[in-house]
Amino acid sequence: MKLSKKRVRHTKGMDITPMIDIVFLLLIFFITVSQVSETNREKLELPELKGAKDQKKTSLVVNVNKAGEIVVAGNTLELADVAFLVGNELEANGGDPGLVTVVVRIDQRATCEIPNALVKQLASQGIQKVRLAVQVPN
Fold this sequence. Notes:
It is a single chain. By secondary structure, the protein is an alpha/beta fold. About 35% of the residues lie in helices and about 15% in strands. It is built from three helices and five strands; from the N terminus they run αβββαβαβ. The protein has helices at about 15-40, 80-90, 115-125, and strands spanning about 60-65, 70, 75, 100-105, 130. Strands 3-2-1-4-5 form a five-stranded mixed β-sheet, with helices on one face. A hairpin with a 5-residue loop joins β1 and β2. The longest helix is centred in the first third of the chain and has 23 residues, at about 15-40. The protein is elongated.
């Protein structure tokens, strides 16, 4: 009589703990990035324009609220501070002003004094790509 030994497999199940850790890290990363991009945009009443395009990748978002204050990433800045930030962006892009794109979001109730001074400042620093943000009418 031939007796067969029952083979017992000693294989472990796949350990998915590292995969779960990575998934949670990616989830936290994307949530954080999406919130940072939202903080760069102040709640402004933008001018309306038909046929507007979606915004492309930008280097710096500058908001001008109805009081004429310049706000970048939630901080109220002076014009000289914006020049400093643009200088940092220029340095980060190897000093090539063609690689720096600045989006200026201006509340439609603001006066044109600050936006004009801002655009002059950007032009004096050689920035060639300045976009003015608008919203599409409903």
